[in-house]
From TrEMBL:
Family affiliation: Belongs to the GHMP kinase family. IspE subfamily.
The keyword Protease is annotated on this UniProt entry: no
Top EC category: transferase
Binding sites annotated in the UniProt record for ATP: P94, S95, G96, A97, G98, M99, G100, G101, G102, S103, S104
Enzyme Commission number: 2.7.1.148
Name of the protein in question: 4-diphosphocytidyl-2-C-methyl-D-erythritol kinase
Catalytic reaction equation(s): 4-CDP-2-C-methyl-D-erythritol + ATP = 4-CDP-2-C-methyl-D-erythritol 2-phosphate + ADP + H(+)
Function according to Swiss-Prot or TrEMBL: Catalyzes the phosphorylation of the position 2 hydroxy group of 4-diphosphocytidyl-2C-methyl-D-erythritol.
GHMP kinase C-terminal domain residues: 208-253
Domain of life of the organism encoding this protein: Bacteria
HAMAP family from the UniProt entry: IspE
Species of provenance: Bacteroides luti
High-level lineage: Bacteria, Pseudomonadati, Bacteroidota, Bacteroidia, Bacteroidales
């Protein structure tokens, strides 16, 4: 069985409170974008191992046991009698980019195992398992545009569509640690909730729909702030960093010509929403 975990961008991101458990409460809109990994699971026979993992494409730091697809397998194995499996993962989503690549893989693995072995877990039950994998994972279970609060695991479906717009996603060769990015933020509730701002036309989002990480991340890595300005110079209606970075995206009425000439040596992906 094969599935295609997609990435996400954040439309606005306000860090509202520091929690006793060290995590932060936030408000954001998660929006799926179809840069996709590929994930396949087949039975592992003739082996004394419980799992085998083969990763293709972008390499992932850490041991196989640290990979979120393996953590998802063991999470379900604690409750269900799962057979040994062979996992094939093709990585196309840039890692450590603020695009939820690893988080998506983990969530899609939960859904794949649920279907493949008929575990009959509901989406709500899968979201509880996903929250144990990481803050960005629960969103990928239903995988629809949604307003999120809490640590990113409390959802309110919203009616928003960016259909017809083009998105240009760029990522410089800069790794931003999510943990460090959070530690530099002074949490505060926004004057106006993203939930309201997002209902206004995209043309009104610039300077209103804010990602709270940008101030400290741009101060630490000025190149990322400059890349955002270049997105506007290229004609973006709205541009922002996604998550804790370092990826950025711009929304356009038409595809950008030759973005590789503007953003040399960057990861670049462009598509219609
Ligand atoms: C910034 C976002 O990408 C917005 O979508 C997410 O909140 C980050 O989600 P994520 O990368 O899945 O984060 P995790 O891997 O769960 O956590 C990494 C680290 O980020 C910090 N963290 C994460 C999420 C959150 N709501 N509060 C936090 O303080 C914690 O120090 C945590 O140890
Ligand atoms: N399947 C995987 N794909 C990518 N990274 C993985 C995976 N499994 C574990 N990781 C680890 O998780 C870290 C963060 O992964 P992920 O891609 O979710 O973060 P991100 O791109 O910063 O997105 P966000 O910050 O929005 O969650 C990576 O640096 C990597 O070490």
């Amino acid at each position: 069985m094969i599935v295609f975990p997609n990435a996400k961008i954040n439309l606005g991101l306000n860090i509202t409170e520091k929690r006793p458990d060290g995590y932060h409460n936030l408000e954001t809109v998660f929006y799926p974008v179809h840069i996709e990994d590929a994930l396949e699971v087949v039975p592992l026979n003739d082996s004394d191992k419980e799992f085998n993992l083969q990763v293709f494409g972008t390499s992932i730091a850490g041991n196989p046991e640290d990979n979120l697809v393996v953590k998802a397998y063991y999470l379900l194995k604690e409750r269900f009698n799962l057979p040994a499996i062979s996992i094939f993962l093709q990585k196309n989503i840039p890692s450590g980019a603020g695009m939820g690549g690893g988080s998506s893989d983990g969530a899609f693995m939960l859904k794949l195992l649920n279907d493949k072995f008929s575990l009959n877990l509901s989406d709500d039950e899968l979201e509880v398992f996903a929250a144990k994998l990481g803050a960005d994972c629960p969103f990928f279970i239903k995988n629809k545009p949604t307003f999120a609060t809490g640590t990113g695991n409390v959802f309110l479906e919203i009616n928003i569509s960016l259909k017809g717009l083009y998105i240009l996603i760029i990522k410089p060769e800069i790794f931003v640690s999510t943990r460090d990015a959070f530690s530099l933020i002074k949490p505060a509730f926004p004057e106006k909730s993203i939930k309201e701002i997002i209902q206004s036309p995209v043309e009104e989002w610039k300077d209103n729909l804010i990602n709270d990480f940008e101030k400290s991340v741009f101060a630490q890595y000025p190149e990322i702030g400059k890349a955002k300005e270049k997105l506007y110079e290229a004609g973006a209606i709205y541009a922002s960093m996604s998550g804790s970075g370092s990826s950025l995206y711009g929304l356009f009425k038409a595809p950008v010509e030759n973005p590789e000439l503007i953003f040399q040596d960057y990861f670049i992906w462009q598509g219609e929403l």
